[in-house]
Write a structure and sequence with these properties.
Number of strands: 21
Largest sheet: 6 strands, mixed
Number of helices: 16
Structural class: alpha/beta
CATH class of the largest domain: Alpha Beta
CATH topology of the largest domain: Alpha-D-Glucose-1,6-Bisphosphate, Chain A, domain 3
């Protein structure tokens, strides 16, 4: 099976496609691309820099991630690239920040993020600390094909260490120094918060609790031990995977519950009452805090599947809003060319002004602690206040993943656009977008998004409305719309 980089790297099942041989093949392609890019820079600058190119390599807690990282480092070193290899498992945003801190050419993160335990993967990072561009990933893919099975270069790990081509390092101190410029540790400390932190056995286990303790919080840790199989759970911080944290919060002993995914680039939160606070609400609360309490300004960038609350708040404060296809790389593009106050997606990947263009569950957790400390109210109470405001209003959200027969994604999108309904759930369809799937925006600001998966025969159907009943009705309508069009496509194809 060909090695393919998706929107956030290459992921595959361990011991099937994700093998040491394939990892080394990918590393060789990354090395060749790094050297080629370096040669271009040398030519452009007119003189060779008196140093070899360097890459930061990090890894999460998954089965064999540390060994895969060492394998990558051996290949890079054999290509005369200096490797900064983290001394232990580290979150993706910490590894990404280290790229900027070390002035490296880019980086490699061994992780499958929130995927089930049987997966591992490689995220390719650029010099600015965010994900490499789709063009850069395609370049790596082309080099893999061009290699035609040729063996990658390799230097024994201990020899590379002895020759100074691999340097082990702890990225924590530099990252902490940076986030202290973005978070008010003193305000958090003054509030004397008790916080429950669920690492979900992921790479956030050595970081978020430590940062909160250094901010003066009392911290209770859940699922923070090393468990390469994640104890069989899916390390995604959504309600159905966070029962231990929700039950802990129902005890009434903690002001805030926080959870990070497998590589800690996503955030989940639980209120003092045990209520799950989804990423839509998190982004809205953070935006209100950054503008209302911090007096910061900038644009708002959100993916097509993210709440209209952000639009309403942006209108309140006169901020520009940009809506992008799903994938943090689209948010990265905006963060690199304009002052983005907050950018995020419904999955929980969020970043803010002054930070690297990378989703960061650790930073968002610290900022949520700051929100609670400053406001002296729970997240649930603050969310109720926000939705009670006439210029915001109540928003409910849900998503379903609907298995369907194989179909052509472009054909389905075209049919859903051409045969769009005039109304849904009793509301007129006011606007239709096909930037990523098909999104029907209704007159009352509710919406339905039908977004075919690019990797499997699944429809991702999202809806947001004023009530749970309206959301349920929109989702039901979305399934019916999509299945009718797919059935018609299959019928005409079969004939």
């Amino acid at each position: 099976m060909p090695i393919h980089f998706g929107t956030d790297g290459w992921r595959a099942v361990i011991s099937e496609e994700f093998t040491f041989d394939n990892v080394r093949t990918v590393a060789q392609a990354i090395a060749e691309k790094t050297l080629a890019d370096d040669a271009v820079q040398i030519k452009a600058n007119g003189a060779a820099p008196h140093r070899r190119p360097s890459l930061v390599v990090g890894f999460d807690t998954r089965f064999l991630s540390d060994r895969y990282a060492m394998a990558v480092a051996e290949v890079l070193a054999a290509n005369d690239i200096h490797v900064w290899l983290t001394s232990s498992d580290s979150p993706t945003p910490v590894t990404s920040f280290a790229i900027v801190d070390k002035h490296a050419s880019g980086g490699v993160m061994i992780t499958a993020s929130h995927n089930p335990p049987r997966y591992n993967g490689i995220k390719l990072k650029a010099a600015f600390g965010g994900s490499a561009s789709p063009g850069d990933c395609k370049d790596v893919e082309r080099r893999i094909v061009a290699a035609n099975g040729a063996l990658p270069r390799r230097m024994e790990f201990e020899d590379a260490l002895a020759h100074g081509l691999i340097t082990r390092f702890d990225p924590f101190a530099a990252y902490e120094t940076h986030v202290r410029t973005l978070v008010d540790f003193d305000r958090i400390a003054a509030a004397n918060l008790a916080i429950a932190v669920d690492a979900m056995y992921g790479a956030g286990r050595l970081y978020l609790a430590r940062l909160l303790r250094e901010a003066g919080c009392q911290v209770h840790e859940l699922r923070n031990e090393m468990n390469p199989g994640f104890n069989g759970i899916h390390p995604e911080p959504i309600a159905r995977h966070l029962e231990p944290l929700i039950e802990t919060m129902r005890s009434g002993e903690y002001h805030l519950g926080l959870a990070t995914d497998g590589d800690a680039d996503r955030i989940g939160a639980v209120d003092v009452s045990g209520q799950f606070i989804d990423p839509h609400a998190i982004m809205a609360l953070l935006l209100e805090h950054l503008v209302g309490n911090r007096n910061l300004r900038g644009s708002v960038v959100k993916t097509v599947s993210t709440t209209q609350m952000l639009n309403r708040l942006a209108a309140r404060y006169g901020l520009a809003v940009h809506e992008t296809p799903v994938g943090f790389n689209y948010i990265t593009d905006h963060m690199r060319r304009e002052p983005v106050l907050i950018g995020g997606e419904e999955s929980g990947g969020i970043s803010i002004l002054g930070h690297i263009p990378e989703g960061d569950g650790l930073l968002m957790g610290l900022l949520l602690a700051e929100v609670v400390a400053v406001q002296r109210k729970s997240l649930g109470a603050l969310l109720e206040e926000l939705m009670a405001a006439p210029d915001v209003g109540v928003f409910r959200y849900a998503r379903i993943d609907q298995p369907v027969r194989p179909f052509q994604k472009a054909d389905l999108v075209a049919r859903l656009m051409a045969e769009a309904p005039q109304q849904l759930g009793g509301e007129a369809v006011a606007h239709i977008s096909d930037s990523d799937g098909v999104k029907y925006i209704l007159a009352d600001n509710s919406w339905l998004l039908i977004r075919p998966s690019g990797t499997e025969p699944v429809l991702r159907i999202y809806a947001e409305a004023r009530t749970d009943a309206q959301v349920k009705a929109l989702l039901k309508a979305g399934v019916a719309l999509a299945e009718a069009q797919i059935a018609a496509m299959v019928y005409f194809t079969d004939r």
